[in-house]
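Q: Can someone sanity-check these two? First one:
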Amino acid sequence: MKAMILAAGRGERMRPLTDNTPKPLLRAGPKRLIEYLIESLATAGFTELVINHAYLGEQVKQVLGNGEHYRIQIRYSPEGERGLETGGGIFQALPLLGEEPFLVVNGDIWTDYPFARVRRAPAGLAHLILVDNPPYSPQGDFALLGERVVTEGARRLTFSGMGIYRPELFAHCCPGRFPLAPLLREAMCQGWVTGEYYRGQWWDIGTPARLQRLEQWLQGAKR
């Protein structure tokens, strides 16, 4: 299975930290955010990785190179300065991802999710990893009904930005900018999306304050 890290976001809420640095290259402790993900994927046995990039994207390529340093092969999907949003970015990268199911991970999260347990073949078109709702987003995104992900439910959870997708999810898409969420919601209505509830560590690094809290947590965990 191949994996893709989404690294094309502008990171407006992270300014001024992202004025000269792409958000996935920001450091949390001794490493860049994206390096934690790459190393976790390599440890889990992934050998082929696709990274999209847009804003200051050449920095991503310069820092990560071909992935040899991380024991993984990296290929890039450039999107220009404006980017293609999540759905459009994945769609453009499909020729690099191939015809089999693939894993996609947001480049601005930190997690200890064990990628070795990723479902290699989702039952439907997608399999999402859901987590507890963070304080800044208490309403959540989706709900679990057994193993099915549904749009509404008694207990809503947050989509972690980690999911396994079949290329067929994008069968009717056209090149250009578009979000992923409408595709997922449509597939949920057809019963084609499964999911799991992960209770481990997961951080969405959307603001400088959250990045600082992650750094403090990592320092405490190291002790």
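And here is the second, same format, sequence then tokens:
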Amino acid sequence: MKELRDILFLDIETVSSSETYEGLNERMKTLWSRKASFLKREEGLTDDAFYFQRAGIYAEFGKVVSIGIGLFHMEEDKLILRLKALYDEDEKALLEQFNAILGKMRSDSLKLCAHNGREFDFPYLSRRMLINSISLPSVLDLSGKKPWEINHIDTMDMWKFGDWKHYTSLDLLAAIFNIESSKTDMSGSDVNRVYYKDQNLEKIADYCLQDVAVTAQLYLKLKNITAEPFEVTVTPAN
């Protein structure tokens, strides 16, 4: 439990900042077109369709709509993973809520853990916080820190074992370690559609939370930590 106590497991879901390419101002349209020219896309895909498909994964053209978080606790010899979904149409309010949660935790020992977090979740959150004029919490502020002072854990990096060209999805690792998948009737590629077309942010938040649960269980497997009995509980959202 000592090893797990200060790890905050997380996952974020992001969408394009505007529903359509036409919804961007002229300056951002030009900059997206320039960005898109360097990206590989299907032949015949319009600028608008390509923007809807890909913009959400870039912090400059997207926004965070949900943050799932999880912490391990020990109760009566049972390891419990407590989950909570944060979500809001107002990105700044969402990020401030997340920042407030981090502020209540021990900053000297707090660690963040996500799958592909170093490449996506951690930098995306940091960039969007700055864009929204929010001061970075210590655990995300990397300025002046040495590599060993950065308290970020990435389960994908743990699986690479130094093989930096190797990408392995969370879903694949869940399968080989017999962890129930979070990919049911929804996947990451559906998030923009569910947000803008279906207008179902709660569904996105629930999907996000499932990824946190899988990541936390994967971490136990990668550290060879036996957790029996084990229980997952969900705190009411927001």
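A (reply): Looked at the second one. The domain at 7-17+61-235 is CATH 3.30.420.10 (Nucleotidyltransferase; domain 5). Strands lie at 7-16, 62-75, 78-87, 111-114, 152-154, 230-235.
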